[in-house]
């Protein structure tokens, strides 16, 4: 079984590029050039240097002793929360801004839900002195005021998406419309492993630094490159894609994907796409997505703004359907408790997205000598208000 | 002969109108189609509403959202169109995004189109390459034309390819924009229109996006075979309702 993208842009049944003709030249240009650019020695040098000196990579792989004791296995945390801007998102935006420069683009657009990808994009645009426009749902702008302020401070223009449900899915629609209206000088930095081919593969490759580092870091600490399991939370799935990438073809490494069940799978307020979704087309790719019987895309729900996307990256849809990945869904309550647990046992306050991955112990049992790597995809500063409200802090 | 081919042979510039099915009111669909034919429109594009219409500007988006709120579905559309061929004989084209069609079932959808007398489809997010590889035989089986878009950014090589794959007409997007974005055509558009005309394509071109009145209709059809008005008509419907459709068409020609 092949878990990587094939030459037509598919992962098994999923992927492809279902785009209006208006976007064809842009997407075709990317498809033709992304690998050549990414494999270029100068590009790699610049990318690696920025990841080291600006982002602060490698991010530590930390053996969480107290958490391990509590759950009876060896738990390592990949500390993407320690990156500049506080999450894994910046790995991809650094890569894409360098790529956009080589494509001769003068203007950057992006979509954002909680604002993490928007901040990461605004950051690299400031770094490179390139104009930046971030689309964000009107409702999310109200919910995520600090991140809106960050983007503005970084010089980005934040444009409210006022159509549809006024959240991430609509921000993505607006960004795509902007790209249609500005086809020549603009590059669209998609923040997750979604969108038309080659985006899912390109974003995955930029994020694959996560599993690349896990391999040598684990070798140093455990004497072996391969853990028994790698686990990550999944909205669109970019942090997960990066965490799994170098282990996809190694059947000895179990892949665990944690989705947001919201208030429960059957509650009508959920974002567990693999369970609730059906095959369809969203934002240019064929994947599993939450929709009505009539094919209208529905609005998901999760306490975490980064996980409430109605689709899932096509690679993950393939991991689900092929059985390569074990998919678990975790409710709001479980995630919040797991976030609190990490704070109290390890002194780390995780992003609520990440807290979902930390709640797998409610659903899976591990053996004492099992080595489990959980990607700690982001820090919890941005979620403090949600934690305060939830726990009456 | 497919009604689209027959109409394209007429010795006149063609006026095609787009409207969103189920808007302004759920059951306006039939009335609007009849009134458009009565007013002398040559072709009609019936918009199948979608929750996430990527290529559409605010006017068509809002009409889609409203149509869905009104309860519009693919099934209801086919019910509304059941007897339409008893009353209307101009070409009818369904324009919709791919996901609702995929969920209905491609074969089932095509079969229903043939049964109700739909002549063709425009599916903006189903690229010609994917269509050719996966879906063409089904469309052909039911005698449906599938029309493709070109834009000012489409390369000559790709235009030739699309021309070769096209049945009916080529949908020529007037400028780099979503629907409804422009109010007049500048020099750049005129150059693009001429460039395409000079290519002597096999398929006639119908211009869409940015056509709103007599002036833009005339400008768009200087070299092209016809033009499509969408957003401007939707805006008119929202202010005047379906019954006054004829007054809008009179302003165009």
Structure description:
The complex is a heterodimer of chains A (393) and B (253). Chain A is α/β, with parallel strands linked by helices. Chain A has 16 helices and 14 strands. In chain A, a hairpin with a 2-residue loop joins strand 11 (278-282) and strand 12. Chain B has helices spanning 3-8, 29-38, 58-69, 74-80, 98-104, 106-116, 128-141, 156-165, 187-198, 214-220, 231-240, 245-252, and strands spanning 14-20, 43-48, 92-96, 120-122, 145-147, 149-150, 170-173, 205-208, 226-229. The relative contact order of chain B is 0.17. The interface between A and B is large, with 35 and 42 residues.
Distance between the termini of chain A: 49 Å
Strand content of chain A: 15-25%
Strand order, largest beta sheet of chain A: 3-4-14-9-10-13
State Rg of chain B.
Answer: 17 Å
Order of helices and strands of chain B: HEHEHHEHHEHEEHEHEHEHH
CATH class of the largest domain in chain A: Alpha Beta
Largest sheet of chain A, in brief, is: 6 strands, mixed
Identify the overall geometry of chain A: globular
